[in-house]
Give the backbone structure.
Amino acid sequence: MQTNPNFFKSIFNGRNAVIAIPYIWLLLLFLLPFIYVLKISFAETIYARPPYSPLLIWGDSWLPSIKASFDNYLFLFSDSLYIKAYLSSLKIAFISTILTLIIGYSIAYSVARAPTRWRGILLMLVILPFWTSFLIRVYAWIGILKTEGLLNLALMSIGIIEKPLMIMNTDLAVYIGIIYSYLPFMILPLYANLEKMDMSLLEAAADLGCRPFKSFWTVTVPLSIPGIMAGCFLVFIPVMGEFVIPDLLGGSETLMIGKVLWTEFFYNRDWPVASAVAILLLAILIVPIMLYQRSQEKAIS
Amino acid sequence: MSENIQFSPWLDSSQKPYIQIQNVTKRFGEFTAIDNLTLDIYKNEFFSLLGPSGCGKTTLLRMLAGFEKITHGKILLDGEDISEIPPHLRPINMMFQSYALFPHMTVEKNIAFGLKQDNLPSNEIDQRVEEMLELVELTDFANRKPNQLSGGQSQRVALARSLAKRPKLLLLDEPLGALDKRLREQTQFELMDIQEKLEVTFVIVTHDQEEAMTVSSRIGVMDSGNLVQVATPAEIYEAPINKDVADFIGDVNILKGIYKGQNKVGTQLFSEDSNSIVYATQDVGASVEDEMWFAIRPEKLEISKVAPSDDHNILKGTIEDIAYGGSFSTYHVKLDNGRILKAIRANRERTKEHHLTWDDEVYLQWAPHSAVVLLS
């Protein structure tokens, strides 16, 4: 075969250029920062700017010497704080994913089964909170949940409770904040799935003697598994690293890895340990992310 | 087969109808889908509801299944009023137009679904599923998922699933619509065999008149929410009640006639198309000068280049078009006044002698008993 004189032309054609865009994006905005964080995680803290030791040291020889240590990772396992924080994050992410699924499924289901002309409006109401800053919405919950907040005032004025509920600065407040904030991420994939479901399948189930409640469990739910998977991962993965909600609504005993990371980075100015925390978090999340990818591929095929 | 010919419980007044649809009306808001419809269907019938889309046939079927609530009237099954019974409690099963197979279940599980709802013991379920798989010849496909099946196989799974519970009544909504012609014809015969073997009453909805003619014991022709005619396929074809039915079922030439009274041959009609009197044997109660129509099926028109010896019921024209159909040819004959009639002639001989061709001057003739006189 002859060498194609238009070799470069054939590489830089329009199709490849379009395909290249996401690759370049991921390279610049994901892979490079990731490598940078990985590099820092192997360094040592020093009082300098930036506050970590360089990975490559250019000495006399023409090859640089590499100075990397796993000390930061070993440190994470030596202090139980980090393990506890990871486990606590896993627990909070897991429980809030389940709760969000239960609430999100019922909302998505009722929107998908609403009359067609209502669906757009209902869906709009689900998306509407996105028009306000996430931070402001979480702040608003402080106003609702605090001791003399809206919720307590309302409950006391109608006489359900006598003294205010202590919700603010507890795990409960964190769960409320997380479920509220991540609900749309659960509803949207579930709605997309439930809305396109063939209703004649439910008629067929009824025709074959299946009660409506049972056909929900034997037909609707199994068929919505791709939507359930998508929604759960879209909630679970970001909640794992959540920082703002536990910081604003949680108390001192609410332990989440996102908060630990923030503390390491901004209060302790320990960039290498903070980077190691971040890398380990990513390692933990890779399993559910891969599961998510697998389920998406299955849903497509 | 001789039994089949005699199967006509609707003529026997001692027979009790199995399904009684009594003065049923169905409205969707302002729109009346079914308008005060009454119909009796007998046990072991293969009853077709036939009509153009939007005529209400599917709505009627869905009311039998229980998916649509009846606005007025009631439906009885074996003497029992089922109007208020929800679909999952009716001893009726339906085969859906889209088949509605559960995509997350194997063929076997799909067929077993209805049996499981009845909490039958698992060995009995297995046995019934086996039977059904054999009936539709899909034993080898028991563990396939619906997306791994062809259209014909899916259709058979849907049929097996709807028959597994041994329903008293099986409803079929355009069951063969998605199949190609050859498979459709083959499946029609399979359906008839199964219906005979299992002694189930079938009510089928179709817009395919050929299909209705092939499979049915009786056909109910529907139009805008009403039953226009209920009769056997042969009656519908040979003695349609009006122009619409005649036109909807098969090909037909409909000509206008002015009633001129009776004579010994039969009814005398003046036809503008032949500019003469034509005869029909059928008696009609009408007064002279009434306007009516007579319908002649294309295969009942003799087409010939030679002038017929007798001189009545003759139209003259030229061949405008020929559709060669292998076993027969359809000739489009243009009359002197510009009207085009269709005539069918079987191609009995392979030779091309006496061959009719384009622009040939031809005579069309029909026997007085071959035309149907229609008053509307």
